[in-house]
Amino acid sequence: MQVSPAGVALTKSMEGCSLTAYPDPASGGSPFTCGYGHTGSDVKPGMTITQAKADAWLDYDIARSAQIVNSLVHVYLNQNQFDALVDFVFNVGAGNFRSSTLLRLVNAGSFAAAADQFPRWTQAAGKVMPGLVKRREAERALFVS
Fold first, then answer.
1. What pLDDT was estimated at residue 21?
2. Neighbouring C-beta atoms of residue 32, cutoff 10 Å
3. Alpha helices in 73-110 (DSSP H)
4. Catalytic one of 15, 61, 83, 139
5. Stated pTM of the model
6. Torsion angle of alpha carbons 107, 110, 114, 116, nearest 10°?
7. pLDDT value at residue 40
8. Please, what is the end-to-end C-alpha distance for the chain in angstroms?
9. Residue 137 annotated to the active site
10. Res. 1 pLDDT band, cuts 50 70 90
């Protein structure tokens, strides 16, 4: 499956776009983030990028997250479920998704129970983050629709 335009819009709205690199607020400084939540060795403190670069990184990062969902989910998903999981992976990473109860419940076909897992992922650095609460609510709402 591929992410729909609505799925891309969800990620864009949750990430926002910064053309100047900034330290991850949840981790106290590292990694640095730029564009639509892009992190990696190619992001350096103080760097600036173009909107075209931010869009290219977003396309790459979403495609990578979609590939992870496609490889780890072994049951049929509708488009909304897929888009919600891709945004989740985009935010929490492949390793966290791979070991999550959310994935286990999805693969068991227990979609209602899986949906109830989204709100469990609202903390960063041991603190509930309002932005993550909002994001998990949006992902859950999309997943169940």
1. 95
2. 20
3. 79-92, 94-98, 101-107
4. 15
5. 0.95
6. -170
7. 87
8. 17
9. no
10. very high
